[in-house]
Predict the 3D structure of the following.
Amino acid sequence: MTQATLQGRALPTPDLMGTALTLAPYGIPTLPLRAGKVPFGNCPTCTGNACGGRPNMRTPGPCRCPGVCHAWAAATTDTAVLTSPPWASAWRRAVAVAYHPGGAGLTVVDLDNADAIAWARTALPATRTVSTTRGEHWIYRGTMTSHNAVRPGVDIKSTMSYARYLGPGSGTLADLPDVVRALAVKEVPAVRPGSRSVSMPARSGGGRCPHRSPVFLERGIAMAEQRITEARSAVHATVYGTFLAVLSRHGRCGCLTETHVARLFTAAQSKGETVRHCTEAWNNARTTLGL
């Protein structure tokens, strides 16, 4: 028996590992889910986040572990990894297949109940849909930051998130509409760089900048620009992670100015990000760091 993938192409789905292996050539990174439909726990190397990965993996960590660790961050299209220990054992104990929508260039609008589905049918453009246990997944071409509970019964799963793979669904895949992006933007008010220096809470010590030389800051901004412009995939995640890194280093001393922020936004826009998406990523990074 054959089915269409999320991208509308034919594939067989004989078992969980087989599903993962047939999705991999189409650029859909997968991971196994254990009982309870949750990811497998961290491997011994990563226990207690000794590898540097964050507890809930909402932001990237430096972990390069080959194990089935860290939820969405473990998702892969590498068939050698998918079929080798410890993944082979994980697939034997798994109850479902999940995938990283953002890694596949997709966004899933997860509709959890009948009311949410009724809302989507009136508010969102038609696209490929997949039936779930309680509702539907509406899948769009394009990525964005993931958000939960953007409205009653509606979650958005894209970058840094995972969704269950429940089959190819039906309908024609549509481009991610602005109305879905706007749902996430409402969670955090947009804050564009103003005409003055970006306002940041001062460190203890009167807000004196701890950096010994302006060269240190300049080098950091230049490296951040380079990291963004050299991104070949997962641009949204790269932009967010870079903003987070810059703010974690320079966000509390008041040394970041409009010019610095504009340079980062320009680099992101050169990779296809809009001003609104840059603002959202910047604001989310500030919120994560408590700025």
